[in-house]
Amino acid sequence: MGIAVRAEGIYKTFRSGWWGRKQKEVLKGIDLQIEEGEVFGILGPNGVGKTTLLSILSTLLFPDQGKIQILGMDSLRDGHRVREKVNISSGNANFLWSLTAKENLHFYGMLYGLNGNHRAKKINDLIKLFSLEEHQDIPFDRLSTGMKQRLSLAKSLLNDPSVLFLDEPTVGLDPSVSITIREQIQVIQKERGMTVLLTTHNMKEAEYLCHRIAFLKGGEILTTGTAESLKRMIRVGDVVKIEFKGTILEDELIRADGVINYGISGNLCEIIVDDGERRLGNLIALLSQGDLQIKKVTLGQTDLEEVFIEFAKNNDSDMGLCD
Amino acid sequence: MNLQKIMIQTWAFVIKNWIITKRNVFSLFEILFWPVVGFFSVGLLTNFLDLNADMAGFILIGVISMSVIQVCQIDVAYVLLYDLWSKSLKHTFIAPVHPFQFISGSWLIGVIRSFIVFLLLSFLSILTFGFDFLKPGLVPLTLFLFGLFLISGLIGMSVCILVLIFGYKAEVAAWSITSLMALVCGIYYPISILPSPFHEMAKGIPLTYFLEYFRSFYGFEGGKNLLGWGFGQIVVYLVIEAMLFKIVLRRARKTGVLIKLSE
């Protein structure tokens, strides 16, 4: 697999006020490497620079410093060629108000140089794919937020991009629409094998869609890795709660594979393990060896949100890069 | 370079402006109402002042030229203004299109709309004031109109440049630049009556030369090589504005204007 997006030392400061006296340093030396066909998530709270980073990678914004290569092309020098191969879809989508959904697609299709028949077929396919049939002749400003978002995704696929940038694609949508949009993104990405770079502050979304995730805070990437590896890295494991009768062999429990910590209170034992689903069977087998009777087992899995909170807390601690 | 692709991309802006125009009742005002109202107001004033035919012609040439330029330049300006108002600017600039494509596409629809305005007003001028716009002949008229269309393109580009620098604050330029030019270029009077600095300024604006050129066919004094000066200045300004556009677009990508105006 080749590298689809490579960014090195990206810095960006916004200036405002008279003579640019007010300065806001948004990105402070971002390094990023995304493989072709990968879904990469940039996760972080509002205002940390996610959209700025995405805008820089999609050629809408120039960084103050740094190098960017998209599909091997220098995006700062060769922006026009890069723009042929990428596209963007943003949450709170905005398109030309008085044009209908279909007319908007035709307009942007023409901007990518698609000719008549090819464009018409592609647009009809996209309208079908995103279930926009009933809304295709409605002006953009009269579409619901969910429909606008679907239109935005449809527009972003007009040029069959090799790299797709999704900026908070489900922000402001109700949960059921968000789930549908996420499923559509996943299906499309798998079918087309394109590289997707997604920003979100929704942990579930990142966990559901992304192969790898980077945590962005204060203009810096705190760490990068798969959802699982990130959970392991900060040792916020899954919690196995066991209600029991008898005596637990504590020496063996602490030595068991994957056990990070444990605590016993009365007849309830809480064991923290790195991967609950993987370790549960062995744990039960181990504990069942003595005179212990297991009455009830519950598995509580850590979600990415807890991981993010930990990362945010431990900003200054030494957290290495994890693949 | 794929010529077909370039044509399709350019045509996209014609289609966009056309669809928005036909859906917007105010665009009908732009084409019909304001030009016709302006034409009759000034035309009737010439009747009231009992001006001779030449003098009335002098003023009618001015008022019709002004309407042609205003309608054509607004279409060029609209190419970014529509995106600005819809907050969809970033989608235009993430597409692989060159500025010359959206300027020329929108200019084309501007030429069509303003030509309709010209036909309407010149027909009305014969009908109501007995002033014949075709008197100088087809070639001078074509050259004159072509000059006006190019000047409109320059004004529209200026508005686009200002939008990329100042965002919403620049909207007002779309309606005011033409009026400022009318003041300096002698739409209703010869530039010789202007005080010194404005008189010199008028010489730096191509519209001055095109008006003098066309009026010369109606017995008014014209300088030498007026068309050469007019078209020459247009070429110079086109080159300057093309370079400025590039610089300003680069600046917009640097300062984040494209993103801010899309939020």
How does the helix and strand content of chain B classify structurally? mainly alpha
Mean pLDDT figure of chain B? 91
**Largest sheet of chain A, described in full?**
6 strands, mixed
What's the helix-strand series of chain B?
A: HHHHHHHHHHH
Secondary structure category of chain A: alpha/beta
The pLDDT mean of chain A sits at 86
CATH topology group of the largest domain in chain A: Rossmann fold
N→C terminal distance of chain A: 15 Å
How far apart, in Å, are the first and last alpha carbons of chain B?
33 Å
Tell me the strand percentage band of chain A. 25-35%
CATH structural architecture of the largest domain in chain A:
3-Layer(aba) Sandwich
User: Helix coverage percent of residues of chain A?
Assistant: 25-40%
Write up what this structure looks like.
- The complex is a heterodimer of chains A (323) and B (263).
- With 323 residues, chain A is an alpha/beta fold.
- In chain A, 35% of the residues lie in helices and 30% in strands.
- Chain A has 2 domains: 229 residues, P-loop containing nucleotide triphosphate hydrolases (Rossmann fold), CATH 3.40.50; 64 residues, Alpha-Beta Plaits (2-Layer Sandwich).
- Chain A is built from 11 helices and 14 strands.
- In chain A, the strands form 3 sheets. Chain A has a 6-stranded mixed beta sheet with strand order 6-7-8-3-9-10, sandwiched between helices. In chain A, strands 2-1-4-5 form a 4-stranded antiparallel beta sheet, covered by helices on one side. In chain A, strands 12-13-11-14 form a 4-stranded antiparallel beta sheet.
- The two termini of chain A are 15 Å apart.
- The relative contact order of chain A is 0.13.
- With 263 residues, chain B is mostly helical.
- Chain B has one domain.
- In chain B, 79% of the residues lie in helices and 0% in strands.
- Chains A and B meet through helix 1, helix 2, strand 6 and helix 3 of A and helix 1, helix 3, helix 4 and helix 10 of B.
